[in-house]
Amino acid sequence: MNLPISERLKLMRESERITSRNEAAEIIGIPHNALWRYETGESIPKGDVMMKILNTPRFEKYALWFMTGKIAPESGQIAPALALWARRNNVSVLRPENWLSIFLAYLYENHRVTICYVTQDHVFTRGDSYDR
Questions:
Q1: Is the pTM value of this prediction over 0.85?
Q2: Which CATH fold would you assign to the domain 5-131?
């Protein structure tokens, strides 16, 4: 994951369907102009601010993704794009039986990837592989 912090913050907010930065800043408990600076890349949040953001109940499910780019749905750690897709399609990300379906449908819908074979560690598509 090579997304800048500003983009990651914006993705998390938008995945929660919070369209207003003011509303998001209020939920997190930081000044709205600070969130604007973080999301526009004008400044980078310090560690204590990042902890505050990632410990906010609406955003804590994205903490692993935010820090590493990885997901662990079995632990409730998901990526914002998957959360948005699941919400749009009225599918619960909290139900383990939905995790693979959400991931595969997201890949197809957003990348027009045709899945050929799935193992515990990889999704194979026409000679390409994607790490989970």
A1: no
A2: 434 Repressor (Amino-terminal Domain) (1.10.260)
